[in-house]
Amino acid sequence: MKLLIISSSQRLDSQSAKVGRYIADSSFLSPHTMGYDAIYHLELCRFELPFWDGEEHSKGKHWPEIKQKIDEADALVLITPEWGGMASPLLKNFLLMCTRVETAHKPALLISVSTGIGGTYPIVEVKMNALKNNKLVPIPDHLIIRNVSNVLNTIPEDARDIALRERVQYSLHMLHQYAQALVPIRERHANQAYPKQQEYCYGM
What per-residue confidence (pLDDT) applies to 32? Predict the structure, then answer.
């Protein structure tokens, strides 16, 4: 199995990327998620992704590289900063580029990052309107990383930081459980298609 972590801040050396690196390291080290053969962490700001205009050929020169990682992934972690109460434009653009061919019936752990005490709205936004046609399956155990500058650093700061790390481990464990459970669903979807399945390829 393969895990793909996407951090979607539009800034280099961001707190979102820090969280992504922590998730990648935790997934390698945790006894609860040792079932992954490979773990990849992509910072979207390091790729030249144009704003998508709805045409397949307009996804840019780096999209084939990203698409390959999505195709191979059995589970995704989507990390977004909160900007003005919204998920990052980079994440929303990325999710518009994803199609059900790459992402349908794959579980996703949603993570919102805030430098303050916010972080709720990006989770709500992504769950409400960013997964309709790509058919990613958000697991119930999303994470909100508040006061992110003070947590998930090299050494735990305090009891809150330690508790957050434990919560991260639980969420990664659940993501791995969903990844295992959804593999046979994708296989049946591919090999035993519902009659007129293509008529229902888009969400309502």
Answer: 66
